[in-house]
């Protein structure tokens, strides 16, 4: 049987209409809430498990990676942001369940889909809960647990480094950490790093007890640690002298004055306020330089240990994050805030509980710490620390740390 062109066109139109009609039937939303999610209050993970966890401290800690007291305190602080209005259409998700979803997501690294099925919540609902809760944690806690340091705080940090880590006049360990993400759309190579992955960088300054003093989140993966420091607020304020860092003090057991310094690795430039190790070819065969590099490395590895604690506690960082960069920034920042909060609550095993006495620095022929000075001053500061650590006073100071 043969058809005319007009008849063939009519048949094609009829087939297209039928296909579109079937497609609309299959994609049409048949309910406001999926029947599976309607069982959340009776069969969801939160409904079944939470009431049992609160009666067992060890199980609660294993599930949320924090104690019940910390979780309760956290809930009270963020509750105003997580409380939603009751409407005539549906009952809102409670603040405690919202917080549980977010903390469980951060602690396990499970996908939104996995959390969705276990808690019997919609995928988009879980996404909204995690992002809004992370923002609330940053909003409610950041100023309290990562405050801008005062002169007294800097001196206290330096005393902790002296007593606990054996490096005098040190006010922090500095390093960068790459968090792997899925390549954002149309981002080119700006997130592509030297490890051949796409990442966002956390630049952090850490004290002697693994707490974050200052953080910068959101730098592109392709940038070097030194370049990020030069462009971020922390680096700019260190350079122009507006971070309230004291001028310095005499090194322990000597009349040698030295400024307060930060310790970092070879990725950072040598500054008056930033010490980096001697290059390998210079240190080879020089016992004093080798000793300085060793002491600096022992102090600097604190920041790497802090990153290790962070990624172990929040396993979201142990996999590639398939999120928009701005959401990743808030997730990283919220975990840094939670890290400091939990440190203050003394939940990290092995942290040393200590008290330090405030010392008034005796200023004697201080080196200039004004910005823009020639690099020779930075070399002179490093030489001062090298000679001190190799001196009798320096060896006695280090020996006292091991005895304690």
UniProtKB/TrEMBL annotation:
GO cellular component terms given for this protein: nucleus
GO MF assignments: hydrolase activity; metal ion binding; nuclease activity
Pfam families attached to this UniProt entry: DDE_Tnp_4
Cofactors required: a divalent metal cation
DDE Tnp4 domain location: 174-340
Subcellular location: Nucleus
Broad class of where this protein is predominantly found: nucleus
UniProt keyword Nuclease, yes or no: yes
Signal sequence annotation: none
Family: Belongs to the HARBI1 family.
Protein name in UniProt: DDE Tnp4 domain-containing protein
Organism: Parnassius mnemosyne
């Amino acid at each position: 049987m043969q058809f005319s062109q007009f008849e063939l066109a009519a048949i094609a139109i009829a087939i297209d209409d039928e296909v579109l009609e079937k497609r609309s039937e299959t994609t049409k939303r048949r309910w406001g809430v999926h029947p599976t999610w309607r069982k959340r209050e009776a069969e969801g993970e939160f409904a079944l498990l939470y009431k049992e966890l609160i009666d067992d401290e060890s199980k609660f800690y294993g599930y949320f990676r924090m104690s019940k007291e910390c979780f309760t305190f956290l809930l009270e602080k963020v509750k105003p942001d997580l409380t939603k209005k009751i409407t005539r259409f549906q009952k809102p998700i409670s603040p405690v369940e919202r917080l549980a979803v977010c903390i469980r997501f951060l602690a396990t690294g499970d996908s939104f889909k996995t959390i969705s099925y276990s808690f019997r919540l919609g995928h988009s609902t879980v996404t909204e809960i995690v992002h809004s809760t992370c923002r609330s944690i940053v909003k409610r806690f950041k100023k309290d647990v990562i405050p801008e340091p005062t002169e007294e705080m800097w001196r206290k940090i330096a005393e902790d480094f002296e007593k606990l880590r054996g490096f005098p006049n040190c006010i922090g360990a500095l390093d960068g950490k790459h968090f792997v993400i899925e390549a954002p759309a149309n981002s080119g190579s700006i997130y592509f790093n030297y490890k051949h992955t796409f990442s966002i960088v956390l630049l952090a300054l850490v004290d002697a007890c693994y707490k974050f003093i200052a953080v910068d989140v959101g730098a592109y993966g392709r940038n070097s640690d030194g370049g990020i420091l030069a462009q971020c607020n922390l680096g700019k304020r260190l350079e122009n002298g507006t971070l309230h860092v004291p001028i310095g003090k005499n090194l322990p057991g000597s009349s040698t004055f030295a400024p307060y310094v930060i310790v970092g690795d070879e990725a950072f430039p040598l500054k008056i306020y930033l010490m980096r190790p001697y290059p390998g070819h210079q240190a080879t065969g020089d016992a004093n330089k080798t000793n300085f590099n060793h002491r600096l490395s022992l102090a600097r590895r604190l920041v790497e240990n802090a990153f290790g604690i962070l990624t172990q506690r929040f396993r979201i960082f142990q996999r590639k994050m398939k999120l928009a960069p701005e959401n990743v920034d808030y997730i990283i920042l919220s975990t840094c805030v939670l890290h400091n909060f939990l440190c203050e609550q003394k939940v990290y095993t092995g942290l040393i509980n200590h008290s330090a006495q405030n010392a008034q620095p005796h200023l004697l022929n201080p080196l200039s710490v004004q910005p823009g000075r020639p690099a020779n001053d930075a070399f002179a500061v490093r030489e001062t620390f090298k000679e001190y650590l190799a001196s009798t006073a320096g060896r006695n100071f280090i020996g006292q740390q091991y005895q304690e």
